[in-house]
Write a structure and sequence with these properties.
Blueprint: E1 5-9, H1 14-25, E2 30-34, H2 37-43, E3 48-52, H3 58-72, E4 75-80, H4 95-123, E5 127-131, H5 144-164, E6 170-176, H6 190-202, H7 209-220, E7 230-233
Parallel strand pairs: 1-2, 1-4, 2-3, 4-5, 5-6, 6-7
The structure holds NADPH dihydro-nicotinamide-adenine-dinucleotide phosphate and the ligand O=CCS(=O)(=O)O.
NADPH dihydro-nicotinamide-adenine-dinucleotide phosphate (NDP) is lined by residues 9-16, 34-36, 54-56, 81-85, 104, 131, 133, 176, 178-179, 181-183, 209.
């Protein structure tokens, strides 16, 4: 039987790339979105439509989704993964970095929801997986704006789940701890980056994007009437 369409934002690196490979392995056609479309195409996955989409652009995101659906059918799963982490001290950070994180980490997630929620509700099925963070559960030094955006992802997901539950649409929040990806490279302060690397070294390294992809696949493969609402996944030695 043909598998349904899975849409992944931020599939050009890290967790999004690992989930793209995992979902492809399971036989799903894919819509892969990111700004670096050449990295999406380089994955060379079968039945994968790759589109250069900035998740802050609501209309372009929706158009790409419509194009993928005309090719592969309804979206059964949206993985709202695109994100930006620019760490900084609250009293020192350039507020432009706050703006960028709010735009991508919150509004980008809302834009993904906008593109699929109405249709999933109407056909009474589907899964929306929002990638938050342990930084969406507790505070960390130098994480003020980033934590704020990830607390928002938790909050909007909780509400969305209640709104869509009666229509059998699942809403899942994934909250990873530190994962070895390009995420830290967005931070401009070398002092903060060095401290973060030392923190990771201190726990003997962190988990991989493939670890998170495996968890996402597990959540998605449950029967539609089983909703794993939230998964918090960290390295065993991560205590914060
Ligand atoms: N790594 C970690 O320690 C943790 C990560 N997370 C979350 O996981 C998610 C994935 O991050 P991770 O894989 O680690 O980091 P990466 O930096 O490797 O990946 C981020 C992805 O987001 C995409 N992206 C960023 N901005 C935009 C945008 N405006 N429009 C479209 N795509 C965008 C990037 O693509 P491109 O640049 O090509 O547009 C890239 O594919 C994020 O939401 C992050 O907050 C949560 C907890 C821990
Ligand atoms: O989301 C990022 C990981 S951490 O800095 O909160 O552990």
């Amino acid at each position: 039987m043909n598998k349904p369409l899975v849409v992944i934002t931020g599939a050009s690196s890290g967790i999004g790339e690992a989930v793209a490979r995992a979902m492809s392995q399971l036989g799903h056609p894919l819509l892969l979105l990111a700004r670096r479309v050449e990295r999406l195409e380089a994955l060379d996955l079968p039945d994968a439509l790759c589109r250069r989409v900035d998740v802050t652009d609501r209309d372009t995101l929706k158009l790409a989704l419509e194009e993928a659906e005309s090719r592969y059918g309804d979206t059964d799963c949206l993985i709202n993964n695109a994100g930006l982490m620019q760490l900084g001290r609250a009293d020192e950070q350039d507020p432009a970095e706050w703006d960028a994180m709010v735009d991508v980490n919150i509004k980008g997630v809302l834009n993904g929801i906008y593109a699929v929620a109405r249709q999933m509700k109407a056909r009474k099925g589907g899964t929306i997986i929002n990638i938050s963070s342990v930084a969406g559960i507790k505070g960390f030094p130098n994480h003020m704006a980033y934590c704020g955006t990830k607390f928002a992802v938790h909050g909007l997901s909780e509400t969305l789940r209640e709104e869509l539950a009666d229509d059998s649409v699942r809403v899942v929040t994934i909250a990873p701890g530190a994962v070895e990806t390009e995420l830290l490279s967005h931070t401009t302060s070398s002092e903060i980056k060095d401290g973060y690397e030392q923190w990771k070294d201190g726990m003997g390294g962190v988990i991989t994007a493939e670890d998170i992809a495996r968890c996402i696949s597990f959540v998605y493969q449950q029967p539609q009437n089983v909703c794993i609402r939230e998964l918090v996944v960290t390295a065993t030695r991560q205590t914060a």
